[in-house]
């Protein structure tokens, strides 16, 4: 199960639907997506925005593959979704590498704007945040929500891997009997046999005494034969 209450297959299906819808929103209206989810997915500089954008655009395809794969139990589709989920975690590491320094030094975009511009290039978004005095709240929201999002994405990738392992298991009613012939030392008896009903089943019988062999070449021992003449 997922979250101790949702069946694994249903959980992967719901996660795929959410992935597809959020990625579709990015494709249809990237500005709205950025305003709604910047604290969750980052994107405070051009490099991180491009990385997140690549993930979201491909998420339309892989989210749809996840929906079809869970609905029709297609393992190859689920495997593709799982690979994309792990790649998304790698993109999140790159996003932190790009955005974390900017967010932690947000106030410097007003106090030392020339230094920040020399180090990172001009960033209108960070300048607007610093100029409006929202560095503290924006930093807190980004660190909290992005960490939560990363934890959720890690859990979803692990849950999808578990679902793949479950799909690899062969149901018990499909287990095949080995085609190898059974050894001849194993045999069975019917409970209706005479020996079993008489209570003598399994008892070892004494061998019958051997008869003395008849020697056809031995001399005849007996009385004389009397014929009709005498």
Envelope shape: rod-shaped
Query: Taking Cα atoms only, what radius of gyration do you get, to the nearest Å?
Result: 42 Å
Structural class: mainly alpha
Q: What is the string of SSEs from the N terminus onward?
A: HHHHHHHHH
> What summary fits the major beta sheet?
none
Low-confidence stretches: none
Instruction: Determine the mean pLDDT.
Output: 84
Q: What percent strand?
A: under 5%
Q: Roughly what percent helix?
A: 55-70%
Q: How many individual β-strands?
A: 0
Distance between the termini: 114 Å
Compute the number of helices.
Answer: 9
List descriptors.
mainly alpha, transmembrane helix, 9 helices, 0% strand, membrane, 230 residues, transmembrane
How would you describe the overall organization of this protein?
By secondary structure, the protein is an all-alpha fold. The chain has a domain at 9-167. Helix content is 64%, strand content 0%. It is built from nine helices and no strands. α4 (75-104) runs antiparallel to α8. The radius of gyration is 42 Å and the shape is rod-shaped. It starts with 7 loop residues before the first helix and ends in a 33-residue tail after the last helix. The mean pLDDT is 84.
């Amino acid at each position: 199960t997922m979250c101790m209450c949702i069946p694994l297959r249903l959980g992967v299906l719901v996660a795929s639907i959410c992935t597809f819808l959020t990625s579709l929103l990015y494709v249809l209206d990237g500005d709205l997506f950025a305003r709604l989810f910047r604290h969750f997915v980052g994107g405070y500089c051009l490099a991180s925005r491009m990385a997140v954008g690549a993930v979201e655009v491909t998420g339309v395809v892989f989210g749809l593959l996840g929906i079809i794969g869970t609905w029709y139990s297609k393992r190859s589709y689920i495997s593709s979704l799982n690979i994309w989920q792990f790649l998304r975690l790698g993109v999140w590491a790159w996003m932190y590498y790009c955005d974390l320094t900017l967010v932690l030094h947000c106030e410097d975009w007003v106090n030392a704007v020339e230094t920040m511009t020399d180090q990172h290039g001009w960033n209108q978004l960070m300048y607007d945040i610093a100029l409006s005095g929202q560095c503290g709240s924006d930093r807190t929201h980004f660190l909290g929500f992005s960490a939560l999002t990363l934890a959720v994405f890690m859990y979803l990738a692990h849950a999808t891997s578990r679902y793949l392992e479950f799909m690899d298991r062969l149901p018990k009613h499909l287990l095949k009997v080995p085609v190898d012939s059974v050894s001849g030392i194993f045999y069975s008896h019917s409970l209706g046999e005479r020996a079993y009903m008489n209570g003598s089943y399994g008892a070892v019988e004494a061998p019958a005494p051997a008869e003395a062999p008849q020697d056809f070449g031995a001399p005849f021992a007996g009385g004389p034969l009397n014929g009709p003449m005498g």
